[in-house]
User: Fold these one by one.
Assistant:
Number 1:
Amino acid sequence: MRIIGPAFRTSGVTKVYGSGPSAVHALRGVDLELPSGELVVLLGASGSGKSTLLNILGGLDRATDGTVRFFDDDLTAMSDADLTQYRRHHVGFVFQFYNLMPSLTAHENVELVTEIADDPMDPAEALTLVGLDARLQHFPAQLSGGEQQRVAIARAIAKRPTVLFCDEPTGALDSTTGRAVLRVLQDVNEQLGATVLIITHAAATAAMADRVIHFSDGHIREVVVNASKRSAEEIVW
């Protein structure tokens, strides 16, 4: 069941790297509300600040100024230890590069996460959800790029995260394989009820989202709510 209400609310969020004339202003006052249970696509060019925003929402980085709330919790007021617990219990990450342990099988890579989660899926269940039930004992080198990305998704969802952050999850994949990965993310959103945020520069991906956030130069330029969204199989880029 999806929880009604915003999963995230940000107000005046800025992020500045460095100081003085050489300071880089990655975020310039971001006000955002992300409803729980939606699949959201954040579109922007490289260097627009979208990954910085994801890292702040995911508790990997801190805002220079402003507030970030996750339901009723103020992430900006949390200690480092509290942010670690937030990531551990609520957040799953999927990146462009799969970050799998090469010496471990697909099952063992997923099992790494389930060992520290409170109420995890069985690793085999998570891998079955992403269509890899026949590849449990294969090592990363024996898997295609799309299969490795699906192992990374299985690892992220095995702890039953409230939110799943995906940073360019199809960036290293061809279009056919990319559509298969997007289908998995759509299934995670629909079947598990997780809020899914996909960071990408591939504009075609917007068609599968509940909500599309257009990001530019550290600002939200536009938010579009899709009246009807397409299936991942219909995405063409």
Note: The first helix runs from residue 50 to 57.
Number 2:
Amino acid sequence: MKTNKAFKFRIYPNNQQKQYLAQSFGCARFVYNRFLRQRIDYYAANAKGLNYFDNSVALTQLKKQPEFEWLNDINSQSLQMSLRNLDTAYNNFFNKHAKFPNFKRKYNKQSFGVPQHFSIHDNKLDIPKCKDIKIKLHRAIEGTMKSITISKTPSGKCFASVLCELEIPEPIYSGGEIGIDYGIKAFITTSNGEIIESPKFLRKSEKRLQQLSKSFSKKQPSAKNRYKAQKLLARQHEKVSNQRQDFLHKTSIQLVSDNQAIYIESLAIRNMIKLHTLAKSISDSGWNTFVNMLKYKGDWYGCRIIEIDRWFPSSKRCHVCGYINDNLTLNDRSWLCPECNTNHDRDVNAAINILTFGRAGIART
């Protein structure tokens, strides 16, 4: 079957290429923000919305105006990709998959898309109006290249993400099955009794982040040292993000490689982080990203990811006799079943229940 897979590489533009990329980032951001504002204002005035085609026609007219002729200096398809991204953000909002689109800021992550007319050869990347960008190909590119996204992190690093279409064999589902329970102290606990501790990368870097944030806030807005302090703070945030991504990738690939079915709870992360006492720990764990990784890697390696209903009492139910402990609180890490006298570890018991009822097709979403 066919699937899409992205390959991300570091690029090293020279000064002239950096200037063109900066111009492209700025134009893509300008188009996104301008037409987001136009959509908001149009809906407020007419009680109906604009779509991608309306914005595309307006962009063509905008580029003909003398005060906006600088938009013609970059690849026109990159500007169209900004409109596509805006339209996707709107659709995700109305489908209740994301919040309402935000305006893009200059000092956050920057990006623009190149859907056509790009190539990679001899460790060099060619895109329209900018050739021979040095690229570090640390692994082979598989499949057919469909599009490329150039991005820049707040710390100043540039990357090229190549989206490829490739053919993978139909997965064969057979073998081991496990249930997984999420936790705060432990990242996950499996029905086999395996506990993977939460690395808590953000917690461990909090002191350093506070120091850098305090240093940045003390700098004068126009001072050069403010720019240096901003870079140091961005690099520390990037380090935490990279550590978390590395941990999640390694954990997810290990689980889908060792099992042919994984049963998990369908958690409402957005609602859970509203509880301020646990919000930081939940965000630091990266559960939502972890579930997404399990799902797409499961398709690649032949592992089914099956979700059960979040309201299923997995922690409160004794997996031996079925007794429901309604008095169980979040602070109770273990409990004794009054009917069968089984001493339960809260998370292991929940993982076993998730496996049992998920395998039986009960309480699935």
Note: The chain has a mean pLDDT of 90.
Number 3:
Amino acid sequence: MTVAAGTPLVEMRNISVAFGGLHAVRDVSIDLFAGEVLGLVGGNGAGKSTLMRVLSGAQPADKGEIRVNGEVVELRNPRDAKALNIETIYQTLALADNIDAPGNLFLGRELTTRVGSLDDSSMESETRKIMGRLNPNFTRFALPVRSLSGGQRQAVAIARAVYFNARILIMDEPTAALGPAETGQVRNLVRQLKDQGIGIFLISHDIHDVFDLSDRISVMYHGRIVDTVQKDDVDPDGVLGMIILGKKPDEVTETDKAEIELRG
């Protein structure tokens, strides 16, 4: 399929999701381009995780349309999303703690020999190749992932997504509970993925992560998009104002600023 220049990797148009009387996502439109990191921020219950669950195939939308590379798609389940090269790295990482890095990389998609047995050597070899690109210092291939550091575990989860040709990556709080050194490692991984042309939705409560990694920032408030801005056109206080008050920076009054300081 030929994709026109400038076509977003993903276009989500007028997406709405309700749970009974609760409108978790209200008429949201958002897009993502190749080689772009889009920071998706908002307070608890703002709707950002529900919106991304729609894109991952885990949550059907009540209304709206999704396009991938300009083509309308149906995402009925996570398999549909994976078939379109949409991969999700959840905050919990969804790793099997009792098995090693190669076992986690190929979990559910194991390589087999011609006689149908698991091809452990090929899986380890492929894992070494992809980890060599992402984290050359990673050497603990034979240990259960429960014994790895948080940054190493995050690298395994990212490697799994990249190995299976992710073009659109949803990252949910990728540096949560990591120390400064490991946070730096994960940020470097995100930059590598961006350089490879992968589009990334970055869900984060960490404003430093958002400003360090994002090209644009979308702020959600009570299920709606407050605004989507170029990172260089806004400062952290402006983003906090949108998160806390649901107002664009040019709508914030002096009284609002005092409230932000009290709550910040």
Note: The chain is about 35% helix and 25% strand.
Number 4:
Amino acid sequence: MSEETAAAPGSGELAVRARGLRRDFADAPVLRDVSFALPRGSTLVVLGPNGAGKSTLLRIVATLLRASAGELEVLGARVPKDAWRARGRIGYLAHSPLLYRDLTVAEALDFHARLHGVADPGARRGELLRAVGMEGRDGQLVRTLSAGQLQRLAVCRCLVHDPELLLLDEPAAHLDPHALATVAPLLGPASDRTRIVVTHDVEGGLAEADRALVLSADGRPAYEGPADGISAEEARAVYAGAPG
């Protein structure tokens, strides 16, 4: 599907526009010719087998990794040239929590809040910890948290500066059903934020998305278009023969 088709009439201003993105590691391509256009307020789900470059794509959009080729605009900023204009408006939830493990919960969140110029870090911290069911843990060391608690704290870090664009890499990782229910209003479609979500939950990802990007095992787009334009079975077809 062409980029012009992706930016359908009436879809509003674009939050992300990618044209022909490629990323090589040690001269081996991981992503190849990835293009998409994501209107503000919409959700793009990124699906594909392990090693297809899904997390690499998120890191490129997060301005943490440069594409080897192609063009990228994020929140109106050309990346990497003007990445500084977008970086503070992005919330990135990665596989790693991106938190200093020897700080307390309060210190870790306040550190990120101050980096982003949050006016009242303590108030914002309290609001977020209550929202994810971790109130009262301000003084606990990050390294003592369980995997599920660490994921919830990473959600707080991702949201501490009230970002416009959420980049979510397996946001349900390590979360039991109760914990997942606490973070869903913050990260899900009800948040009204623009979102790019990488997930192996094909049915759930497609159900919550406006658009879908399905990558094949060699990092090429196998499908890019409306989320309701591809079934879960069709999306899974690209997983055939994927590495474990």
Note: The CA atoms of residues 54 and 71 lie 17 Å apart.
